[in-house]
């Protein structure tokens, strides 16, 4: 089934904690894996990277190779990377890097080692944290509750179309666009058609997860000059299947829903803050009292919600 | 008999439903508080009891109802009164997707609007919606009647089997294999008799009655186009 969520705060705050609450209330929809996209206070320069290596014993070698590619593109670590290790074959890493000369080319080169190490988010403020297991476990392992920011996405996965792997968890980064992430509830039925088409155009797919297609598809459409709003509307015609997906950028969160109106989305806006989720009982964790709930229940719907104050002191 | 009050909050729903069943056995009436839009509240209620849910409830509230009178103060999620065989369910606000799915009897009265596929696969009973019914209302309904007073969304009465969809107000579009017919005076009187006890009778209504065009009953390849209309 999967469950998705979005959160916008009226000023920077504990957005990570809210996203964990939203996902905890929806954990029954799927606890194969859980993920979060958190938008922190944006940096003026340099990027924050989140990534995953698939063999912890190769951690040092992976980082050396990764740094080599980074330097070839005129960038380097600005801080020492921090790692989450132990208990599983894979490890997770957070890095802060200086700006590569050409972000798209750099990530293309960095992806040549994607069988060993994947960059899963890159942005001035975006950080994607994802792992196998339920929301509480993933949150505790990666310290998600303490993440400060303005907005973000959450995802609880019930694996249907591909294996349960830590990197096949949502959210997916719309590589190579910095600060763009998606979460999806549903199934894409023309997945292989689009995957082949985009593959021939030079896009790289890092998983077998059908939801990754949405991220790649959107990044392609935006590279062709479409605005986010246009891409959302076009996706309803071009992507086949049942879906409600949410896409976040630096300035807001958007969503699109299939023409069969199969997957729900409920939204509450109150006092300048916003919560969206697959189930109303999830947004009640944020807004326990009775309030106006908007059900996006119709077919072929899109919407974009803006983020207001991003830089006020946390 | 004095009212029995049950609190939901973050308690396990199985425990809440056990309390509700015990209160039903005691004879009720029952008031359920602090519902927080949680799912599966009041499933499998027995005949003769009266139960009131304060606030909004989640999915499948009053599912498999066998004759209880249920009121939901505000909104409900998917599948309210799904599989109900008898009883009377009132939703004060908005009803989510698949309201009254596969119900076989009883009456649902929604005071607000309905989400998609209201009355999907219903096999009997009545759904009255004061507002607008959503996308694909009555999808593959086999029997029973849906009455919408505030219009209908896209693909209304899509692939309807033997049920009836009555709409007063605008219909955004018709679904596959729908026939719109002029109801007889006797049929209108029948619908008015349903609406009257709900305080909704209005003889000035301009009804559209929708039934199956029956083209999908006996599929022939030359009719395949009908399936591709959606």
TrEMBL record, chain A:
<keyword id="KW-0032">Aminotransferase</keyword>
<protein>
    <recommendedName>
        <fullName>glutamine--fructose-6-phosphate transaminase (isomerizing)</fullName>
        <ecNumber>2.6.1.16</ecNumber>
    </recommendedName>
</protein>
<dbReference type="InterPro" id="IPR029055">
    <property type="entry name" value="Ntn_hydrolases_N"/>
</dbReference>
<dbReference type="InterPro" id="IPR017932">
    <property type="entry name" value="GATase_2_dom"/>
</dbReference>
<keyword id="KW-0315">Glutamine amidotransferase</keyword>
<feature type="domain" description="Glutamine amidotransferase type-2">
    <location>
        <begin position="2"/>
        <end position="314"/>
    </location>
</feature>
<dbReference type="GO" id="GO:0004360">
    <property type="term" value="F:glutamine-fructose-6-phosphate transaminase (isomerizing) activity"/>
</dbReference>
<keyword id="KW-0808">Transferase</keyword>
<dbReference type="Pfam" id="PF13522">
    <property type="entry name" value="GATase_6"/>
</dbReference>
TrEMBL record, chain B:
<dbReference type="GO" id="GO:0016491">
    <property type="term" value="F:oxidoreductase activity"/>
</dbReference>
<dbReference type="InterPro" id="IPR036485">
    <property type="entry name" value="Glu_synth_asu_C_sf"/>
</dbReference>
<dbReference type="Pfam" id="PF01493">
    <property type="entry name" value="GXGXG"/>
</dbReference>
<feature type="domain" description="Glutamate synthase alpha subunit C-terminal">
    <location>
        <begin position="13"/>
        <end position="172"/>
    </location>
</feature>
<protein>
    <submittedName>
        <fullName>Protein glxC</fullName>
    </submittedName>
</protein>
<dbReference type="InterPro" id="IPR002489">
    <property type="entry name" value="Glu_synth_asu_C"/>
</dbReference>
